[in-house]
User: Which sequence fits this backbone?
């Protein structure tokens, strides 16, 4: 890849081509948990925090009526930092000269101005549309004269709160290399390889520790064994109106095929199975060019999600209130050469596979130099996604609606998307995975299985 092309698809600040594209899509700006005083005691008296998204700085706050507001961080008077604003219930007040703004960005008071002044009627701080879904606060940062598309009608946003759980973490790298790990089906056989399998009785909430659907000679096989023993997948990416569907096949023998169906939701989200009854929808949200939040929604198609167990599993490796990882370059991501020889392929722990992906992304450097890479057949999905990304950037520059959920019709179409991870008859795997999806959806207490799926 040429250096100018790499720059074009990685830089996301205001005024950049990829930044203009990203602003056509809803972006998760925070977890609702970030305003829970049990997790961040500061929120009990002052529910306001500074946030950074797509290279821009904002404040996000909840007023006394429970309404959230996302405003530009610099006061429109003389640019003072509203992260230090006084929270007054019905709005926030800049301590510099007392200008006050509500959640819609309306200027309510300019107390230093002469009596009768109508200055506040002519001043407005830009506010951004927000939606709350599945424990996430979404923002749309597109042009003020455009109407945002609907939030995509995905399973993870349609499921009730009882059946979803949201979490996040920050990586010190560009958004694209973070996303590209998730749409690379080959890496799981190496980066996440465990040399021993665990009991399938204690796998709740843990990725790659559960079993694949189906069995071999009457045995349920853990994902760790399948990834370890079958390392040359047949990867079949297919472009779709929402991005692409990835079919990954691992031939186990003449009669059995391991089938994994996942999805890339343009521009930065993937949907993968966590277990036989739970999916992960993971977004890779650019903070700026060199920092990214992965934001995951776990969706259950069976029992309600045990949120406290899921949260505590992840808080062991994450520092609140900013959701920063415990491990990183500063401590070599927890690398242990003895472990690498005897227990895991990478040597960075067995309990948190996020640190595996974190190492892969951060060790490339803040922005990967794609002029130095050499892609192979196993990188088909990476290559297709980059072509789609470049075309979408071109479309925005030409005034066209880009791929996926920036198109209101695509965003409003009910979509799973359905994921599968299972062992199928080799000669009938296409029918098998579709029936597996049907059974999973029919078993979901919150879902009408007649709804359109993909």
Assistant:
């Amino acid at each position: 890849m040429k250096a100018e092309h790499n720059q074009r698809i990685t830089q996301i600040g205001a005024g950049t081509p990829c930044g203009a594209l990203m602003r056509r899509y809803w972006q998760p700006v925070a977890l609702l948990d970030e305003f829970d005083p049990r997790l961040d005691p500061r929120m009990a008296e002052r529910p306001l925090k500074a946030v950074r998204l797509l290279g821009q700085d904002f404040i996000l706050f909840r007023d006394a009526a429970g309404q959230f507001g996302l405003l530009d961080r610099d006061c429109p008077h003389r640019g003072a930092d509203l992260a230090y604003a006084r929270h007054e219930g019905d709005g926030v007040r800049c301590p510099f000269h007392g200008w006050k703004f509500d959640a819609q960005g309306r200027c309510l008071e300019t107390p230093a101005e002469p009596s009768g002044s109508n200055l506040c009627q002519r001043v407005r701080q830009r506010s951004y549309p927000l939606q709350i879904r599945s424990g996430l606060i979404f923002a749309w940062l597109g042009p003020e004269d455009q109407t945002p598309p609907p939030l995509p009608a995905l399973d993870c946003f349609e499921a009730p709160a009882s059946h979803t759980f949201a979490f996040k973490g920050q990586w010190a790298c560009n958004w694209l290399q973070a996303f590209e790990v998730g749409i690379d089906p080959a890496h799981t056989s190496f980066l996440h390889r465990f040399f021993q399998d665990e009991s399938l009785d204690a796998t709740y909430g843990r990725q790659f520790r559960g079993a694949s659907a189906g069995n071999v000679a009457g045995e349920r096989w853990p994902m760790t064994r399948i990834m370890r023993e079958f390392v040359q997948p047949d990867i079949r990416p297919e472009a779709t109106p929402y991005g692409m569907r990835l079919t990954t096949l691992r031939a186990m023998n003449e009669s059995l095929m391991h089938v994994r169906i996942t999805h890339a939701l343009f521009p930065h989200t993937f949907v993968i199975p966590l277990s036989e009854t739970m999916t992960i929808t993971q977004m890779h949200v650019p903070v700026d060019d060199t920092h990214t939040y992965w934001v995951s929604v776990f969706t259950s198609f069976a029992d309600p999600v045990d949120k406290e167990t899921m949260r505590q599993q992840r808080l062991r490796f994450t520092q609140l209130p900013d959701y920063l990882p415990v491990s990183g370059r500063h401590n070599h991501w927890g690398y242990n050469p003895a472990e690498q020889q005897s227990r895991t392929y990478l040597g960075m722990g067995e309990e948190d596979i996020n640190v595996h992906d974190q190492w892969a992304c951060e060790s490339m450097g803040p922005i990967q130099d794609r002029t130095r890479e050499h892609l192979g057949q196993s990188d088909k999905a990476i290559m297709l996604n980059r072509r789609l990304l470049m075309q979408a950037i071109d479309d925005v520059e030409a005034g066209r609606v880009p791929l996926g959920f920036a198109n209101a019709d695509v965003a409003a179409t009910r979509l799973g998307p359905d994921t599968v991870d299972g062992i199928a008859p080799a000669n009938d795997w296409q029918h098998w995975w579709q029936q597996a999806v049907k059974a999973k959806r029919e078993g979901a207490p919150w879902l009408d299985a007649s709804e359109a799926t993909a």
Notes: DSSP finds eleven helices and 20 strands in the chain. The mean pLDDT is 93. The radius of gyration is 23 Å. The first strand starts at residue 27 and ends at 31.
